[in-house]
Specification:
Layout: H1 8-41, H2 50-53, H3 58-68, E1 72-76, H4 79-93, E2 102-105, H5 109-115, E3 124-127, H6 131-134, E4 139-143, E5 146-148, E6 153-157, H7 164-168, E7 172-178, E8 182-183, H8 186-194, E9 204-207, E10 212-214, E11 220-222, E12 229-235
């Protein structure tokens, strides 16, 4: 138990911070409740409350939620635009302390196919380096098997590709997700993974924005235990898995 009897200023500061965060969450609570109500009444958009219609489809809501969590989103239509987005991300990072020289990628064939097209922009591209080596890479590129619009969360299923450490250890993570795999809720995302006909991996990684850590003094630090920046490329064109066929 913590006593604030001798430090009323600290008590007032903490209570004030709690009130501010509760007030800020009100808007998200309203959207969550209205989306839930819409699910209960049926999939027809006309059955959703009017406040929810502005948040649909799931793509728009995902972008808003991701950016609210300090993630960056790029919508790309097919291979050419995805490659261009990757080049722009690498180029923009060269103007920061996170200058990208070495890229680690997952073992998904489509990710490797895309990454090889930006090889001239960097010094090295490696497929799933060993854990001890990953700390020396500047950027990790993976796919995501689903996304959750409600919270701006990526869902990474390790049975589909080896991407967990690539997504967690480099200071910058770039994830590519199909637009039609963006679900409204976590339960819908898990159902989508199951619909593929295989068991869901016991290791499913959920990624919501850059890494965050807060200490007992309520000081928020970004990137202490994971990526400092998260970029999500949403593919609205042909599915990535068709690139290597």
């Amino acid at each position: 138990m913590i006593s604030f009897d001798n430090n009323p200023e600290a008590r007032d500061a903490i209570l004030s911070s709690i009130r501010e965060h509760l007030a800020a969450s009100t808007r998200h609570d309203v959207v969550h409740n209205e989306i839930k109500a819409g699910h209960q009444t049926g999939p027809n958009p006309e059955n959703f409350p009017s406040a929810v219609i502005t948040s649909l489809p799931a793509l728009d809501l995902f972008i808003d939620s991701l950016e609210a969590a300090d993630g960056r989103c790029i919508v790309a239509n097919g291979e050419v635009q995805i490659v261009q987005a990757l080049k722009e991300i690498v180029s923009s990072l060269k103007e920061t302390p996170l200058e990208t020289r070495r890229i680690a990628i997952s073992d998904a064939p489509a990710v490797e196919h895309l990454a090889r097209q930006i090889a001239d922009q960097v010094e090295e591209i490696a497929v799933t380096p060993r854990a001890a080596e990953l700390f020396s890479y500047d950027l990790g590129i993976t796919a995501a098997q689903a996304a959750i619009a409600e919270t701006g969360t990526l869902v990474l299923d390790s049975k589909c590709e080896r991407h967990r450490l690539v997504s967690l250890l480099p200071p910058v993570h770039v994830a590519i997700v199909e637009a039609d795999r963006i679900c409204l809720t976590l339960s819908e995302a898990l159902l989508l993974l199951r619909s593929s006909g295989r068991d869901v991996s016991p290791t499913v990684t959920l990624v919501t924005g850059p890494s965050r850590t807060a200490d007992i003094e309520l000081t928020l630090a970004i990137g202490v235990h994971g990526p400092q920046k998260l970029f999500v490329i949403i593919n609205t064109g042909p599915a990535l898995e068709t690139l290597c066929k």
